[in-house]
Backbone:
């Protein structure tokens, strides 16, 4: 799905920030967006149109994020009570864009690997190294196993003071040496730059969600064709 030999640009959660996403997409590199294209920001419809154009032109792809997954289920009518941010996104889509977006989200992979780089939205599980991602259940069945980790990370079952689920980073300790997991989902950064964490097994995780669409900004990292990190930027 990623053309062999292409240098890459890995882009964090966009959340409807079209202005920043345009900056990220202004590159000759193949763009790998880590999921959560929509919700919260001012122009989720515009972000979807740009991502669909990148797909059509063979210039990029996006991974399945939990907000994208929720939107596709909302488009199909599978969610009776929508979160406000998803309801706002859904209302901004014309029927043709909604249909195209739902089809693209249904095809989006939950994880991908290129050399020493591993791409996923929410969190890593070592079973992901053994098999390709399964199709996501858009019919209402509960997501479980590695797919749940890919979409939602590793919830502890507790709620944070901000009302969002608390998530553990224990999975970082199971990333094998020589592998870097690029993910979004959790806004872990304290200085506005991607947050890096080295695991007990020698691998590392890089969290690229720096708050785009939610009062922060969009971050991306450029990689060589083998997954070697070259540079990073903020949009």
Residues:
């Amino acid at each position: 799905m990623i053309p062999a030999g292409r240098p890459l640009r890995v882009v964090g959660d966009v959340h409807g920030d079209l202005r920043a996403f345009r900056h990220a997409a202004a590159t000759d590199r193949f763009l790998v967006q880590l999921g959560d294209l929509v919700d919260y920001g001012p122009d989720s419809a515009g972000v979807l149109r740009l991502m669909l154009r990148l797909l059509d032109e063979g210039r990029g792809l996006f991974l399945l994020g939990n907000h994208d997954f929720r939107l596709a289920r909302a488009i199909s009518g599978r969610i009776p009570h929508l979160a406000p941010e998803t309801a706002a996104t859904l209302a901004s889509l014309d029927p043709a864009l909604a249909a195209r977006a739902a089809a693209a989200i249904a095809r989006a992979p939950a994880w991908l690997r290129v050399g020493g780089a591993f791409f996923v939205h929410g969190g890593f599980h070592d079973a992901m190294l053994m098999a390709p991602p399964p199709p996501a259940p858009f019919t209402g069945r509960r997501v479980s196993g590695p797919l749940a980790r890919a979409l939602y990370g590793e919830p502890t079952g507790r709620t944070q003071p901000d009302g969002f689920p608390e998530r553990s980073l224990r999975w970082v300790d199971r990333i094998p040496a020589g592998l870097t997991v690029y993910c979004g989902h959790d806004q872990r950064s304290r200085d506005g730059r991607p947050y890096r964490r080295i695991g007990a097994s020698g691998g590392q995780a890089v969290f690229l969600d720096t708050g785009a669409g939610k009062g922060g900004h969009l971050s991306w990292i450029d990689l060589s064709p083998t997954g070697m990190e070259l540079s990073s930027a903020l949009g």
The CA atoms of residues 174 and 201 lie 6 Å apart. The chain has one domain: 8-234. The mean pLDDT is 93.
